[in-house]
Design a protein that fits this description.
binds zinc ion; mainly beta
């Protein structure tokens, strides 16, 4: 199942939160969050199979590295997949 792509935008409220989400050397890294859409690093035919029922999983979300202090292995993102048959979730790091 393909979910329409919806961009997510962090809304930090405190100074601590604002510091957490920033990259000083790149303005795009840390903003690549979205729901639905498609994985940018693998074709949808290569999406993982559900560990429980073996059905093809759906791409659910991309969560970017938060900021320099919480960077994921040199600006990687987290890709989360969902099985809409049994609701098993699978997440993995991706380099995009
Ligand atoms: Zn399943």
């Amino acid at each position: 199942m393909k979910i329409p792509k919806v961009k997510l935008v962090p809304m930090p409220e405190t100074e601590e939160e604002k510091q957490a989400i920033s990259y000083t050397w790149n303005k795009e890294i840390g903003t690549r969050h979205f729901l639905g859409g498609e994985s940018e690093d693998i074709n949808n035919t290569d999406y993982p199979r559900c560990e429980s029922c073996k059905n093809q999983m759906s791409f659910y979300a991309q969560i970017d590295s938060i900021g320099e202090k919480y960077d994921l292995a040199d600006c990687m993102v987290i890709h989360t997949f969902i099985c809409f048959d049994c609701f098993t979730v699978h997440s993995r790091l991706a380099q995009i």
